[in-house]
Amino acid sequence: MGTTSPSDPELTPPTDQKAPALYSIGGGMLAVLGGGLLALQRFGHMELPSWLYYAAVGALVLGIVEYGLGRMTREAAWDWNKSLLFALVLALLIRWPIAEPYRIPSGSMETTLHGDPDFGKGDRVFVNKFVYGVRYPFLNKRIWHGKDPERWDIVVFKSVEPDAEHPTLVKRIVGMPGDHIHITGGNVYVDGELLEIPDFMPEGQRYTSGFSMKYGVRPEPEFSQVPEGHYLVLGDNSANSRDGRYFGWLPNEHIVGRVASIWWPPPRWRDFTGFSTTLWWNGLLLLLGGYIILRLFVGRFWRTPNADQQGMNLVFVNFLHFGFRLPMTPWKLRRWGTATRGDVVLYRPAGDVVEDIDVLLGRIVGVSGDEVVVEDGKLLLNGKEQPLVPGHEIRIAELPGETHRYGKKGKGKAKCIVPDGHIFLITDYPEHPEALDSRSMGFVPEDYLMGKSQWVLWPLRRVGKVQ
User: Fold this and answer.
1) Which residues are designated catalytic?
2) Per-residue DSSP letter, 252
3) Alpha-carbon gap, residue 59 to 35, rounded angstroms
4) Residue 122 sits in the same domain as residue 268
């Protein structure tokens, strides 16, 4: 077996492949800090303030990602960071004003909600934070008010007790503003009349009234009449619930949102709002399911320069053009279709110089047996000059130094003749001086082809087949 010199330009990795070690170390320290704080909350049963909890989650995720990016080039790491930042901002924009998952920490809402403080146990619920109006982050104050809470709504709220064991609680609204409440004999009386328990409540629901309870139990006006803008919230597991009977009336501003559904564990899935029976919900599921099937099995959308390099097109890449591929893998369960010169294709890159890149889009300029040479901005196919795109004069950029290793005179025919089962691709950005295609990565196996870019969908004036 022969050996090669480390100075061989084809085997020596680029000098900027690794970022400074401190980049990875800093990410690891962030991950340890965030993970430690979350471990204290989960296993030490320590309730973190909301802002510190979110900071810990962010530090853990950011630390893990940044540690993983430590071996990338600065440019690649920056691209990942931009994507991460976008995803983080999007997640915050959803979690802050729209919806957020919560864990049920105690059994005060049994049997409606199962609570358990241990890790991985207890129901997980989605909370609609938009329905009652958007609150300022980390403050018990609303930017604007939505609809008013209704009797029997299950709500998540910030405790009115400063030393509460759980600063965020979940209970059911029973008393409305202005109601005169009296709990006795297991029943709730509103303005002197028995409050009927709805069918969706736990069977045999009873509300206890002990000596240590005041609100809704004692007859004095300050304990029996719900003030305006306030509510009486009670746990369904009345005998084991520290609720409004102890801490008093709940201000509207403390309500985070309405519990919409149990989403975990799957056997306990339940919709509390009836939204899952609406046309909106079923239409959304249909669209989402259709998109997932389309994305996994049929194709995907991709932005690419148009043929004359003036502006961008949104194109559809057809995964079924070359066969039926197992989703999220390079393996095809069944093959059909052949690679043709001129096709614009989505493919998995070849060679060790592109280990950080998932897929690329390029144009096939050479198939098995073709001699491909790119020089002076021109494409020579089997010794004859060929336009990259018929009818368009597009100049191909010169790659710097030793980057241009294939399809170049002086490198030998082995670097210009496309071997069997391979293709030669030119990038979708041929005028870019740092283009990544077969000139630098080498011949691409036909098995790496994922799909053909077939139809332009946008802009409207360019709708049609890809040139």
Assistant:
1) 108, 171
2) G
3) 8
4) yes
- Give dist(CA 105, CA 288) in Å, integer: 32
Does the pTM surpass 0.85? The reply is no
How many domains does the chain divide into? Answer: 3
User: Does 119 share its domain with 56?
Assistant: no
Give the number of other Cβ atoms within 10 Å of residue 32's Cβ: 14
- Tell me the residue ranges of DSSP E strands in 124-254: 124-128, 154-158, 168-175, 181-184, 187-190, 193-194, 230-234, 250-251
Supply the range of the domain harboring residue 450: 296-465
The whole-number mean pLDDT for each consecutive block of 10 residues of the chain, a chain of 467 residues, reads: 37 41 62 73 62 73 70 64 75 80 89 80 90 86 91 96 88 97 96 95 92 94 96 96 96 95 90 86 89 90 76 89 83 87 90 69 94 91 89 82 86 91 87 80 91 89 81
- Determine if residue 142 is left, alpha or beta; phi over 0 gives left, psi from -120 to 50 gives alpha, anything else beta: beta
Of the residues 245, 277, 309, the one at which a domain ends: 277
| Amino acid 413: pLDDT | 87
Residues 301 and 347 in one domain: yes
Give domain status of residue 335, yes or no.
Answer: yes
